[in-house]
Amino acid sequence: MPVKQNIPFNSGTFFITFTCYQWLHLIDKTAGYDIVYKWFDHLKSKGHYINGYVIMPNHVHALISFVNTGQSINNIVGNGKRFMAYDLVESLEQRGEGDLLNILSSNIESKRKENKKQHNVWELSFDWKVCLSKEFTWQKLDYIHNNPCVGKWQLADNPKEYLHSSAKYYLTGEQGVYPVTNIMEMLDVDFKGGWQ
């Protein structure tokens, strides 16, 4: 999957955001939260760390510490988006969401059609920020955890009440639906260009 800019690092802690096509609420519509957790499981199986996350109805924010596996972070995230897209489309098909599937299959770039792409599930790019300081990293965790409670969302009164987030762990010490590795443990991991 293309991104606005190639990540010039092979490892480290990153704040990653990716969004459903046209900001459609595809994750909520398919109850696709487990699809994202499945990707997190895959990342963990390769030695990466999930340090924080929130899965919103139409986008995902995650704090992920990538170890150097020889594969670029761009490819790791791009491949994850692709496999999650397959599962989300399958779920939409099973739910009979023909109108949504038609939206996702329209406006596919000709080059991508040649590569057999049938649906735009995610926006093509994803956003990333490297976390090089504790202050910046905690700022991003706070942003992630407060996301369901602010603006138009109002999905929970308190961050720890939102089910699909790591806020409960960071606020109470008790793991939520998906277990994460405390960001402070990353201080002991030797990431090139890591925290200061």
Largest sheet: 4 strands, antiparallel
* Strand residue percentage: 5-15%
Shape: globular
Radius of gyration: 17 Å
Distance between the termini: 31 Å
What's the SSE pattern?
Answer: EHHEEHHHEHH
The number of domains: 1
Q: How much helicity do the residues have?
A: 25-40%
Total helical segments: 7
Uncertain stretches = none
CATH architecture: 2-Layer Sandwich
How do the strands line up in the largest sheet? Answer: 2-3-1-4
Question: Would you give the CATH topology?
Answer: Alpha-Beta Plaits
Give a topology summary.
Layout: E1 12-19, H1 26-29, H2 33-45, E2 49-55, E3 59-66, H3 73-94, H4 98-105, H5 110-114, E4 127-130, H6 134-146, H7 167-172
Antiparallel strand pairs: 1-3, 1-4, 2-3
Describe this protein with a few key phrases.
196 residues; alpha+beta; Alpha-Beta Plaits; four-stranded antiparallel beta sheet; 4 strands; 36% helix; globular
Tell me what you see in this structure.
With 196 residues, this protein is of the alpha+beta class. It has a single domain (12-188), classed as Transposase IS200-like (Alpha-Beta Plaits, 2-Layer Sandwich), CATH 3.30.70. It has seven helices and four strands; from the N terminus they run E-H-H-E-E-H-H-H-E-H-H. The protein has helices at 26-29, 33-45, 73-94, 98-105, 110-114, 134-146, 167-172, and strands at 12-19, 49-55, 59-66, 127-130. A four-stranded antiparallel β-sheet has the order 2-3-1-4, sandwiched between helices. A hairpin with a 3-residue loop joins strand 2 and strand 3. The protein is globular and about 50 Å long. The two termini are 31 Å apart.
